[in-house]
Specification:
- The chain has 154 residues and is mainly alpha-helical.
- It has a three-stranded parallel β-sheet, with helices on one face.
- The radius of gyration is 20 Å and the shape is elongated.
Length: 154
């Protein structure tokens, strides 16, 4: 009964956003081919911590683990202290933003080219965000000189 409800919803939806473990929809018989049969115009955003392929695909992806893996923790905290996680789940936030942008782009492309699309959001794409963080977080306050001891400037 639940899959029937899912199928009816998919048939009338523009977008599906899901973050099931990799392979869950396939095990339920609702993989890409099934979704396309149900709704050829569906935009499908699949969010997973480490993507659908590769050695970490089955690992859970917690925000603080990804912060450490992409280097965000290394620029946070006291200059001589241990790395610290950010107070905000920034990897989750950035992943959501990239996902939303991808959906918008796919919607525009579909409108202009009459195509559907499947998107994969990979939180590790946030590595590019880390590059901007180094520029934005130098440890200085307005009007002060840059702190050469702050971990982001070393």
């Amino acid at each position: 009964e639940a899959l029937g409800i899912f199928d009816r919803l998919i048939a009338q939806s523009d977008v599906l956003i899901q973050n099931f473990k990799v392979g869950t929809l396939e095990r339920l018989g609702r993989g890409d081919d099934a979704l396309e049969r149900l709704n050829p115009r569906l935009i499908h955003l699949a969010i997973s911590g480490f993507g659908p392929d590769g050695p970490y695909r089955d690992r859970p992806a917690y925000d603080f683990v990804l912060q450490a893996m992409v280097g965000l923790m290394s620029i946070t905290g006291e200059a001589e202290g241990e790395p610290m996680r950010l107070g905000v789940a920034v990897v989750d936030v950035v992943t959501a933003l990239y996902g939303a942008l991808g959906i918008l782009e796919a919607g525009v492309a579909r409108r202009h080219r009459e195509i559907a699309g499947r998107l994969k959001a990979d939180p590790q794409a946030g590595r590019e965000y880390r590059l901007g963080m180094g520029d934005a977080d130098t440890g200085q306050k307005d009007g002060e000189e840059e702190d050469p001891e702050h971990r982001s400037t070393r």
